Amino acid sequence: MLTHRKPACLSLISTDLPVWSVVETTATLYQKDRQRFHLLLNEPAVLGWEPDTEDRPAASDAASSRLLWFEISPSRAIATMQGQGNLSYRHLWERGMYGISRYWLRGEGVESPGQMRLRNYTRHLELSGYPLPEHLRLEYELWTGKLQLGRYVLNLDIHP
Question: In the 8-state DSSP scheme, what is residue 61?
């Protein structure tokens, strides 16, 4: 398995809601086979997200960062986020199909919400660059039942 370290930029934008996020970091790219790749990003923690951060002593950047793991191919992408905080998620996108978006909310009590499962519909999935990927663009809708929760564009640029 070939491994490459490269600078990367990940952005998520909603086309109909005030949602916009950009992360610039170093990515580790693993080539699984000719058209399949795994990409590991270290995302800094979102400041102010954790509701109990003021009660805790300040954590180091490494302890408060989150890992983003992408599995990408020309027809499918999976993103998994794991971190030290109370939120994790996993998205599965396939071109022209409904996929699953799961969010895990960890809480202290027995009545904590646990898992939230949503559907996403992938309108467009494009992976470009050869022999290594340089750009991934995903356009998708997020749904709960019959209610649309917005349209989103995810761009992942992997710099040479």
Answer: H
